[in-house]
Amino acid sequence: MHLQSDICIIGNGAVGKAAALGFAQAGLGVTLVGHAAPAAAVADWDLRVYALNHVAHALLSSLRVWDALDAARVAPVDAMQVYGDGAQAAGSHAGQLGFDAYGARVGALAWIVEDSNLNQALDAALKFAAKVRCVQASATAIETAGAAAQVALDNGDTIGAELLVGADGGQSWVRGQCEIGIDYRSYGQRAVVANFECAHPHRGVAHQWFAGEQGIVALLPLPGQRVSLVWSAPENLAEALLHETPQQLAQRLAVWAAPVLGDLRPLPPPERKAFPLALIRPHAIVAPRVALVGDAAHVIHPLAGHGMNLGFADVAALLTQVAGRGPQVDCGDARVLRRYARARKEDILAMQMTTDGLARLFGSEFEPVRKMRNLGLNLLDRIPALKRRLISHALGRLP
Q: What is the pTM of this model?
C-alpha cells in the first residue's frame, strides 16, 4: 500500500508525537511511524522524568496537551540550588548558586513530569487528531530526490511526503540514511535514576551537587515528599550503584541529601536504571526534504535537564517555519529547511557549550581549578544581571 502525507515523522517518542500534533493542528496530513512503547504501571513513579521549561510548557499548551496531564503527578520547580564540589549541604563553604521563581518573575522555573504522564497525554490527543495516521512499523529505506521523500516500511508499505522528520533518537537511523556525520564523545558516565521519599518537605526546590570524582548528583522534586535522583556517575561508580540495594544507595546519598531533605526511603519500583552519557553533535540538522528534531539533532549532558526542552524547541521552530512558508511553497522546500536550521543554531550551540563546558570544568580534579570553579559559582550568585540571563536562557526566554 502506498500512503501519501504532507509530513512523515519517523520516531514516536514524545518529541515526534508533539510534532505530529502540531502539524495536524496546522491542517497538514501526517503519518507517524514507530512502534508503541509498552504501557507503564501508573501506580509507581516513573524512573524517567523531565524538567520541562517554559518553551515546552508553551508548546504543549498550544497543542492542548498540558491540561491533559495528570496534574497530581506534576511538580513545579520553585527554586534550584547548585552546590560546588566539596559541598556536603547548604551550609558548606564550597561554591553555591541559587535561582528562584520569585526572582525570575515567573510562577515556576520548570515542571517535573514523568515520561508516562507526558506520553499518555500525547497519545490521548493523537486519538482525536483526524489528520494523523499512526503506523506500527519500522522504516527500511528512504529516497529524498525529487518532489517528495519516499519511505519504505518493513511491512511492505511505502509513504510519500513533502517533508520527512527524523525524531528517532540519539542513534537516529534517519540521520544515518542522510549520511549526516556526527562528532561523538562519551563522557565515561552513566545517569543512574531512582526515586525516594524524603523525611523533610522539599518545598519545590531542585538540588544539584557537583561532587568531583563522584560525578553530578541531582535530586528533583516530585509531588508530595518525593524526589527523583539523577546521578551522573563515572562508569565504575555507576556499576556499583546499580548493584547496591536501594537502602545502600539511600545511605550513599545521605552525605548530600540528609541536611536539606532528611532521610531518604526508596520508592517503588525498587529497581534503578542507568543511561550512558555522551555528547553528539550532528554536522547538520537538515538534508534534502529532511529535518531532524530532538535527540536525532543533538544529545547533551543531562546536568541542566534540557535535553527534552531542546527537542520541544526544535518542534516549535519547525512548526513556525513550515507555517510561514508562503503560498506555492511545499513543506520540504529547501528554503524552509535552511530557515529552520538557522533558527535553531544559536540555541543548540549555546546549550551544547554550556553543558559540555560545565561537565568538563567540574570533572577536573586539579586543585586550582577546584578552587576557581567554586569561587566562580559564588561570584555568579552575587551578580544579578548574569543570574537573570542564565535564568532567562533556562526558561527558554532568550533575549
A: 0.92
